[in-house]
Design goal:
The chain has ten helices and 21 strands. The chain is globular, with a radius of gyration of 21 Å. The protein is an alpha+beta fold. Among the domains are: about 170 residues, 3-Layer(bba) Sandwich (FAD/NAD(P)-binding domain), CATH 3.50.50; about 60 residues, no CATH class. The strands form three sheets. Strands 3, 4, 5, 6, 11, 12, 13, 14 and 15 form a nine-stranded mixed sheet that branches. Helix 2 packs parallel to helix 6 and helix 3 crosses helix 4.
């Protein structure tokens, strides 16, 4: 039951080899999700010699466990962006995410992509006021939003804010197709090739097969960056987790929805292979802080049955994603001291478009091109006050969990990243670290970073 709909219905898997030799390349990309694959494709088609390393199988992480909304409507974000970055930058954010949708449409084949309106909805007076504020931001940015009451859902709605002609994708099939395009352009993809050592001075990576990759430039698309300590990104990224249940349905929704009130819910349908699937998403919390996670699946199971009259639940899964303090992802050179190392992370659960945006930013920087979004997405962008606040919150949790975990969870394995005690996740059967979001399988092997070494379960 606990299996992503997207991973379960992927195309027949292409086999990519494990790294079995010492190699050199222009650009080495670490991470085989949508961000890494898009970057590989963009660079390879421009003649760069690209190697992509994935520690497990491509698209098996965040990309394979997303909701698959390819949209520029990233919840209530534009009023905040105008306040934080100004109108010009907020408009850039919208424009480049719309361009990401256009890129997706240019790549997708068959039923990998479907057009759909994106709709925010409120159920309270306070939520409606938030929609009105967001609509004002849309008008300021000349975005084609419509404020009204447009909902197909069998639940009470006070108001809706619609952004028409957006898209949704089957993220794994889309990513598999993109991987083929990258390989056809000359990129080399290696799976089950986990980076175990990184020497940035020598510009080399060692993998678990004891082989090395020498690179000129390095791109980290690893969800939570391996080299986070260098730029203190580990103090600037908060990792949150959410849950999904999917059931077979008879009718597809015309729109894809997200509530602005509590409890937060994201809703969409997916159509492929002659079937319709209804996805209900929510129950978010900070990663690694809960053990009895079955309650979140049970809540969504109950809602999809009682509210939407769908009892045939076929899939359930969960995913986590880092977010930056100011809502905009990090994409670009990680710092001036190591300009040949690039970072792509912090998508805040809106990684379908933002991963494509980030890939274009990084590819343009490597190719020496101007990208108007580079400053907005820069990992070293200004705004230290908000970073410091987020760092205090995050490191505060780290200190509490580090000391408290060692006192109260004395039998729990110790995370190999920075020594925090992990917590058993009963529903997903994983060991989760509450400090920086590392996750380990039941056997102790690394499922998600920033940890790179397995747990000691002895």
């Amino acid at each position: 039951m606990l299996n992503s709909l997207w991973l379960h219905t992927a195309y027949p898997k292409d086999q990519y080899p494990k790294l079995d030799d010492d190699l050199r390349c222009d650009v080495c990309i670490v991470g085989g999700g949508l961000s890494g694959l898009t970057t590989a494709y963009l660079l390879a088609k421009e003649g760069k010699d690209v190697i992509l390393l994935e520690k497990d199988s491509i698209l098996g992480g965040a990309s394979g466990n997303t909701t698959g909304k390819l949209t520029a409507q990233h919840d209530l974000v534009y009023a905040k962006l105008i306040k934080q970055f100004g109108e010009a930058n907020a408009k850039i954010y919208y424009d480049v995410n719309e361009e990401a949708i256009a890129f997706g449409r240019s790549i997708a084949v068959n039923d990998e992509l479907k057009d759909a309106d994106s709709i925010l909805f409120s159920q309270t007076e306070q939520g409606t006021e938030q929609l009105q504020q967001e609509m004002a931001a849309y008008k300021t940015l000349r975005m084609p939003g419509e404020l009204g009451k447009n909902s197909e859902l069998p639940i009470h709605t006070e108001a809706t804010l619609t952004l028409k002609n957006e898209s949704q994708i089957h993220p794994v099939r889309f990513g598999q197709h993109l991987a083929k395009l990258a390989v056809e352009a000359g990129a080399r993809i290696f799976e089950h090739s986990d980076v175990t050592l990184m020497d940035l001075k020598k510009k080399l990576l060692s993998v678990n097969s004891a082989h090395e990759v020498h690179f000129n430039e390095l791109v980290l698309c690893t969800h939570y960056p391996i080299e986070a300590l260098r730029g203190l990104q580990f103090m600037k990224l908060l990792v949150t987790r959410s849950y999904v249940v999917s059931a077979e349905a008879t009718m597809a929704l015309q729109g894809q929805y997200i509530s602005v009130d509590s409890p937060k819910r994201s809703i969409r349908t997916a159509q492929f292979d002659g079937k319709t699937h209804f996805l209900l998403v929510g129950e978010g919390h900070q990663a690694g802080v809960e053990s009895e996670t079955n309650v979140h699946y049970k809540t969504l199971h109950s809602e999809i049955d009682k509210i939407y009259n769908l009892s045939n639940v076929t899939h359930a899964w969960s995913a986590q994603d880092p977010q930056t303090p100011d809502l905009v992802p990090y994409a670009g050179s990680i710092s001036s001291s190591i300009p040949y190392v690039y970072l792509s992370t912090g998508f805040r659960k809106w990684g379908m478009t933002n991963s494509i945006v980030s890939a274009h930013i990084i590819a343009d920087q490597i190719l020496g091109r101007v990208n108007r979004a580079s400053g907005l997405y820069a990992p070293d962008r200004t705004g230290f006050g908000s970073f410091l606040l987020q760092a205090m919150k995050t490191t505060g949790l780290v200190l509490v969990e580090f000391t408290g975990g060692h006192l109260t969870r004395t039998d729990a394995p110790i995370c190999t990243h920075m020594g925090c005690r992990t917590r058993w996740n009963e529903a997903d059967e994983t060991w989760d670290c509450p400090c920086h979001g590392s996750r380990f399988r039941k056997d102790g092997s690394v499922l998600e970073g920033p940890a790179t070494k397995p747990l000691n379960l002895d």
